[in-house]
Amino acid sequence: MSIDQLIATRLQSLRKTQGLSLEQLANNSGVSKAMISKIERQDSSPSASLLGRLAASLGVSLAQLLSEENPQPAPLRPQANQEVWQDPDIGYLRRQVTAHEKNGAPELVEITLPAGARVSYPGWHQQAYKQRLWMVEGTLDIRYGDENYAMATGDALTFGVDLPITFTNPGSQPCRYLLVMSDK
């Protein structure tokens, strides 16, 4: 299954599981009904910010839109089996290192953000979770609510998804970081 098929399937499944119509999800997320429909039909590949708004509105992590839930993951997850998604607008690259598990186990996600790129997410109002970010290489500016953090290689930051957040790569090279997400 392609990543666009997976996103389409997961978005529609999560929307229907919550009993939401296209119009209700559009009103809750600020994403047009037409765009949600295009994503579900695989007529459009969403941006990272748009996926963030949909995930926040559904009260799920981005991983739940970008990967299948795996109730019993294998101990080994080869790189070839890790879902990779690229934002069609800015080239942001997201690798789902570990599978999303229903039991709330921590998730690992590797992000590569191109030089000069910026991605913003709204605050999650339901089922907010914690994240830990570790800078693998490059620099990254993070605005979390009213706080600003300048990150360099080796730095770590713990934060939630309860407030709006913007990730900006101010450097001339791509930056790469690891996110560890957990319910606690």
Identify the notable features of this structure and list them briefly.
184 residues, alpha+beta, 434 Repressor (Amino-terminal Domain), Jelly Rolls, 2 domains, 6-stranded antiparallel beta sheet, 4-stranded antiparallel beta sheet, DNA binding, DNA-binding transcription factor activity, RmlC-like_jellyroll
Structure commentary:
The protein is of the alpha+beta class. The chain has two domains: 3-66, lambda repressor-like DNA-binding domains (434 Repressor (Amino-terminal Domain), Orthogonal Bundle); 79-181, Sandwich (Jelly Rolls). 26% of the residues lie in helices and 30% in strands. The longest helix has 15 residues, at 3-17. The protein is globular and about 40 Å long. The relative contact order is 0.15. Keywords: DNA-binding. Residues 11-65 form the HTH cro/C1-type domain. This is Helix-turn-helix transcriptional regulator. Pfam families: Cupin_2, HTH_3.
User: Ranges with pLDDT <50 over ≥5 residues?
Assistant: none
What CATH first level of the largest domain would be assigned? Answer: Mainly Beta
Question: Remind me, CATH topology of the largest domain?
Answer: Jelly Rolls
CATH superfamily assignment of the largest domain?
Jelly Rolls
Main β-sheet: number of strands, strand sense, barrel status?
6 strands, antiparallel
Beta-strand fraction estimate: 25-35%
Order of helices and strands: HHHHHEEEEEEEEEE
Quantity of strands, as a count: 10
Helical content (DSSP H or I, runs of 4+): 25-40%
How far apart the termini lie comes to 31 Å
Quickly give the structural class.
Answer: alpha+beta
Q: Write out the strand line-up for the largest beta sheet, numbering strands in chain order.
A: 1-2-3-10-5-8
CA radius of gyration: 16 Å
Shape type: globular
Write down the overall mean pLDDT.
Answer: 89
Q: Tell me the number of structural domains.
A: 2
Gross CATH architecture of the largest domain: Sandwich
Tally of DSSP helical segments? 5
Protein name: Helix-turn-helix transcriptional regulator
Keywords: DNA-binding
Organism: Rahnella contaminans
GO molecular function: DNA binding; DNA-binding transcription factor activity
